[in-house]
Design a protein that fits this description.
Keywords: Membrane, Transmembrane, Transmembrane helix. The protein is mostly helical. The chain is built from six helices and no strands. It has a domain of 81 residues.
Length: 121
């Protein structure tokens, strides 16, 4: 199948997450940011004197690898195909909701990467 041909509808049905999952997953973003707040506050108060440089190195490496693996995953390309060339008849929910559901894992990894990079600076 050429990259610009639409996918059959059955491919996009298993890529689009459920409505419940799409509504609950943004809570992970909030939890992720809240989890980094104590480390940011400690760094603001005491500087980097209590943080291991190895911990920061591993955190940055893990975040980079997670972001790279998410971007290189073929399933992600399938999701992009479903966004760019939606197949078949319209789906019950609004299209933007499905786009948000497909892109949410990438947004989560990007937020974690940004949080880790803020600590490394």
């Amino acid at each position: 199948m050429a990259p610009n041909e639409p996918f059959p509808a059955e491919h996009c049905r298993w890529i689009v997450p459920s409505t419940l999952r799409t509504l609950l997953e943004p809570l992970i973003l909030v939890a992720l940011i809240v989890a980094y707040l104590p480390r940011y506050m400690q760094t603001a108060r005491h500087g980097t004197s209590g943080i291991s440089s190895r911990w920061i190195l591993w955190l940055c490496l893990a975040s980079n690898m997670q972001l790279a693996s998410r971007l290189a995953a073929m399933r992600g390309w399938y999701g992009v195909q479903c966004i760019l060339w939606p197949p078949g008849p319209p789906i019950r929910e609004p299209f933007w909701f499905h786009v948000f559901g497909i892109l949410l894992p990438y947004i989560e990894v990007a937020v974690q990467w940004v949080c880790a990079m803020i600590l490394s600076v």
